[in-house]
Amino acid sequence: MIVPVYKTERYLDCCMRSLLGQTLGDIEVILVDDESPDGCPAMCDAYAAQDPRIKVIHKKNAGLGPARNTGLDHATGEYVAFLDSDDLIEPQTYAVAVAEMEANDADMVRFRCNRFLDSGESAPISYDAAPVVFDTPDEIRQLALCIFDIPSPDMDRYDLGGSSCMAVYRHDMIRRHGLRFESEREYLSEDYLFNFDYYLHASKVVWLPRTYYHYRITAGSLTRRLNLGVMDRVEHYCRHVEDMLATRGFGEAEMQYASGFYVRALRANMRFVFMSKELSMAQKKKWFAERTSDPSFRRRFDAYPSQELPFKQRMLFKTMADGNFLLSYALIVGFSRLRKDKLK
Q1: If we measure between CA atoms, which residue out of 111, 113, 139 comes closest to residue 206?
Q2: Percent of the chain with pLDDT over 90
Q3: How many CB atoms lie within 10 A of CB 171?
Q4: Average pLDDT over residues 46-59
Q5: Helical axes 40-50 vs 12-20, angle rounded to 10°
Q6: 8-state DSSP, 51
Q7: Cβ contact 46:37 at 8 Å
Q8: Per-residue DSSP letter, 82
C-alpha cells in the first residue's frame, strides 16, 4: 500500500490505524513523505520503528503524482493499492479485493467510496451489491472512456470512478507497461490518466459495489474547489486527454468524452462559485459571462451531445449554452438545496 504523506498530521493516525488493522496480514506499507512541513515526517519514522511492514521514504516535495511514482519504485508486492493519508479504509478491504483478484484472475478490482465531511455534517453512506465482472475488449474500452464522462444514462454501469485509491492493481502490469502518474501540478485529475492507460492494458476488471473507502472532505479541500481560474486548467487537461485518445487509437466520436469532462467540471465549478458566500452577485455574474464567452466553452458545448443527458443536467446545459445567468443561477441553487435536504 502506497501512502503519500503531506500536511496531514491531524488525520494520519486514523489513516494508519485503518491500514494496519487490515485483515490481510501480509502487507507492505510504503509511506512517502513529500517533504511535509509539519509533524508527519517524525510520525512516519515512528510507525516504521514499531512495525516491520512499514517502509518510509523521505523525498523533496514534488506533489501527489510523483510521490505515488516514488512509492511504485520501492514497492515489492504482487499487488499495489494507494491510500491518501487523510482518508480511511474498511478493515476487510484488501483481503476481499485480493481474493476477488485471484478468484477471477482479474487485472484490477475497483470498489465504492463514501465521501464525508470532516465537520461531521453528513453521516457515512453505505452501499452493498453483488460484484460485477467486465471481461470483453469493448467493455474495458468503455470503462476507460467513462472515466472522463458518462454521456448518457445507459452508460451508468461503466461509471466506476477514476480515483486510484478505490482500486487494487497488479504490480507486474504497472512495471511491464511503464505506467506512471503525471504531476497534478501539470494535469488535474492525474489519477484519471493513470487509470485510463491501465484499463487499456487490462483484460478483466471486477467491480465491487460496496463501500470500502472513506474519503474525507476537509475545509481546506472545499476552499481549493473555489478557484475562479480552474477552467483554464480544465481546458489544458481536456486537450491532453484528446491527444491521449488519438494516440491510443480512438476516433473523432470518442473526443466527446474530453468535452464531457469539460462540461462536468464547469457544472461542478459553477456550483461552488454560485454557492460561495465570499463572492458578490456581481462577481458571480462576471465570472459566468467570462466563462460562457470563452472560445473553448463554445467549441465544447456546441459539439457535445446534450440530448442524452438526464433531464436536470439537460436543463442546466441549455441555460449555460444560452448564456442565461439568472436561470443557471436559479437551477444551481435549487438543485444544491435539494441535495442538502436529502442528507437531513
Answers
A1: 111
A2: 83
A3: 15
A4: 97
A5: 20
A6: -
A7: no
A8: B
Report pLDDT digits (tens) over 235-294: 999 999 999 999 999 999 999 999 999 999 999 999 989 999 999 999 999 999 999 999
- Cell reading at 269: 465549478
CA dihedral 316→244→203→173, nearest 10 degrees, is -130
CA atoms 86, 91, 97, 98: torsion sign: positive
Per-residue pLDDT at 135 exceeds 90: yes
Distance CA 154, CA 175 (A): 34
pTM value is 0.92
Q: How far apart are CA 197 and CA 177, in angstroms?
A: 9
What distance lies between CA 307 and its chain's CA centroid? 26
Residue whose C-alpha is closest to residue 171's, from 71, 51, 23, 56: 71
Residue 222 has pLDDT above 80, yes or no: no
Residues counted in the chain: 344
CA–CA gap between residue 74 and residue 108 (Å, rounded): 20
Distances (CA, A) of 213 to 48, 192, 339: 23, 17, 22
Average pLDDT value over all residues in the chain: 92
Distance between CA atoms of 89 and 16, rounded to whole angstroms? 9
